[in-house]
UniProtKB/TrEMBL annotation:
Function recorded in the entry: Catalyzes the transfer of a dimethylallyl group onto the adenine at position 37 in tRNAs that read codons beginning with uridine, leading to the formation of N6-(dimethylallyl)adenosine (i(6)A).
Names of the cofactor(s): Mg(2+)
Organism of provenance: Mucinivorans hirudinis
Protein EC: 2.5.1.75
Family: Belongs to the IPP transferase family.
Molecular function, one GO term: ATP binding
Source domain of life: Bacteria
Reaction(s) the record says it catalyses: adenosine(37) in tRNA + dimethylallyl diphosphate = N(6)-dimethylallyladenosine(37) in tRNA + diphosphate
UniProt-recorded name of the protein: tRNA dimethylallyltransferase
Region (Interaction with substrate tRNA) residue spans: 41-44
Site residues (Interaction with substrate tRNA), renumbered to this chain: S107, R128
Keywords: ATP-binding, Magnesium, Nucleotide-binding, Transferase, tRNA processing
Length: 312
């Protein structure tokens, strides 16, 4: 549950699986409301990962004010806790001149960190070293055993997050999924949630097509350019790991591309599982609504929020 204060400061959160069309909606809404956009994507912040993370193109970035887009290096790293701290400070500044700010992106952990607070969870350096010695498959199996609920929703290709969850489980003797759902921190803005959906078939087609576009734009070359940093957490990402396997000679180029499509579809499926548990203020099905009706959304924005979004 989100604990917020009711005032003229409103954060409009656009939810949706990867490839569903969040960028187009966020820009259209930002232009209509003259509102800035905060990107909530744990990888689009990195300058070296433009193609593989589907960073908005130059014309899209020019169409609205954007934040947390390619503003640091993969060498610097970035965590959900850091995002919470930096985004809250930025919101304090943005709300001085804007009644509305838009949050858009697919990193659900980062969204939760900003809306509810990032829990200070236990850790253990010894356990961390032990986990660093294990293969990815072993870690995934351990998570399935220790916390099957989190196993269902986490990006299993994100080894850093899997290790963190296991570290908490082993250090506390409790499930990470239970510990991280603590009491929400109070925020000084209201929250309005928009869910963007498509049929699964259409979403998967869009994902496959987007991967082909990425490859055509130079994803392979981009992956090769970050090869020296392949051990960093930021590069444990779909679209890069598969090309690293190709560079190592373990799979063919064609296999790498097909794996990227498959793993991206799997990631979208996990996002949809998480989204089903979220209560939205407004839902938009882009499979049936060919044109985004911004005025209808604006009209709905003027209605009272769900009680779960009000001050607790």
């Amino acid at each position: 549950m989100i604990a917020t204060m009711t005032n003229n400061r409103r954060l409009i959160v656009i939810y949706g699986a990867t490839g569903v069309g969040k960028t187009a909606l966020s820009i259209a809404l930002a232009q209509r409301l003259a509102a800035p956009i905060i990107s909530c994507d744990s990888r689009q912040v990195f300058r070296e990962m433009r193609i593989g993370t589907a960073v908005p193109c130059e014309s899209e970035l020019a169409a609205a004010e954007h934040h947390f887009i390619q503003d640091r290096s993969v060498r610097d790293g970035f965590s959900a806790g850091e995002f919470e701290s930096e985004a809250l400070a930025l919101l304090d500044e943005l709300f001085k001149v804007n009644e509305n700010v838009i949050l858009a992106g697919g990193s659900n952990l980062y969204i939760n960190a900003l809306l509810c607070g990032f829990d200070a969870l236990p850790g253990d350096e010894g356990i961390r070293r032990m986990l660093n010695q294990k293969y990815k498959a072993e870690l995934v199996d351990m998570l399935q055993e220790l916390d099957p609920d989190y196993h269902k929703i986490v990006d299993l290709n994100n080894t850093a997050r899997v290790k963190r969850a296991l570290e908490v489980c082993l250090a506390s003797g409790q499930k990470y999924s239970q510990l991280r759902t603590g009491r929400a921190k109070k925020r000084n803005f209201s929250v309005y949630k928009i869910g963007v959906f498509r049929t699964r078939e259409e979403l998967y087609e869009r994902i496959n097509r987007r991967v082909d576009i990425m490859v055509g734009e130079g994803l392979e070359e981009e992956a090769r350019s970050v090869l020296p940093y392949r051990a960093l957490p930021a590069l444990q990402t779909v679209g890069y790991r598969e090309f690293f396997e190709f560079f190592d000679g373990h799979i063919s180029r064609e296999q790498a591309i097909e794996l990227i499509k498959q793993k991206t579809r799997n990631y979208a499926k996990r996002q949809l599982t998480w989204l089903r548990a979220e209560k939205m203020d407004y839902e938009l099905n882009l499979s049936t609504d060919e044109q985004i009706n911004i005025e209808e959304i604006i009209c709905h924005l003027s209605q009272p929020l769900h009680t779960s979004h009000q001050q607790q």
